[in-house]
Amino acid sequence: MEQKIELLTFVSGCINGVDFQASGGGFADPVKGITKAVLLYDKFPEDFTPLKCKSWKCKHHPAIAEEIDGGKNFFTVCKGNYDVFETIKYPGNQAIYSSAKIRRIDFSRQVVISRFDGFCTVDADIARQLPYDEIMRPGGRGKAMLSGERTVMTVKGAEIKICWEGEIQFLDRNAELPFEEIIHYEPLAPVRFLRKELRYEKEMKVTIAPRYKLNSK
Predict the structure, then answer these.
(1) Mean pLDDT for the chain?
(2) What's the CA angle centered on 120, arms 124 and 90, to 5 degrees?
(3) How many Å separate Cα 59 from the centre of its chain?
(4) Rounded distance between C-alpha atoms, residue 200 and residue 49, angstroms
(5) CB neighbours of 216 closer than 8 A, spacing ≥ 6?
(6) What is the mean pLDDT of residues 65-79?
(7) Among the listed ranges 9-18, 91-100, 154-163, which one has the minimum average pLDDT value?
(8) Contact, 43 vs 11, CB < 8 A?
């Protein structure tokens, strides 16, 4: 049965010395783990691309990922209310620092307000993003730790490795992640950034499962 959740996203930041803002919307079906969303920017640095950064829309996903093999998404764990703080690392010791507030307004609407700051001038001509995993680890009551790695392919065929780590703080300080989990991200269509229109489009299939079950298969 399809269950639509409206996704609202508001972004600000300063990357490579350029201040920008963006807003957008989309929908998620947490039963199937499918999301589709668009962001529109007011401006964006010429020497960077959203295709090379993690989490423009991904901060929605821990709360709306399809639960498989007994996995528990963050709506189950903490009613979809949490804050994220992470460092995204690039080749050459370059980094972007990101923070976000994720709130489930009601059963059918979720909002993310996030910020990105830093410098990264690695090749901005990205052709595609590959599927990737993110690991969530228990951090005790009210907290979880996250880490992940992804690969993007440049137009010239080179690979760029991007990795990140950070912390999640649940608004419910008694909420607790019961075990390590893996969130798997699978693009359902090419992720696109139309630079002329400053339009970012993304459609994903996202699942969450206990890490130990995946490792035992």
Answers:
(1) 91
(2) 95
(3) 4
(4) 10
(5) none
(6) 96
(7) 154-163
(8) no
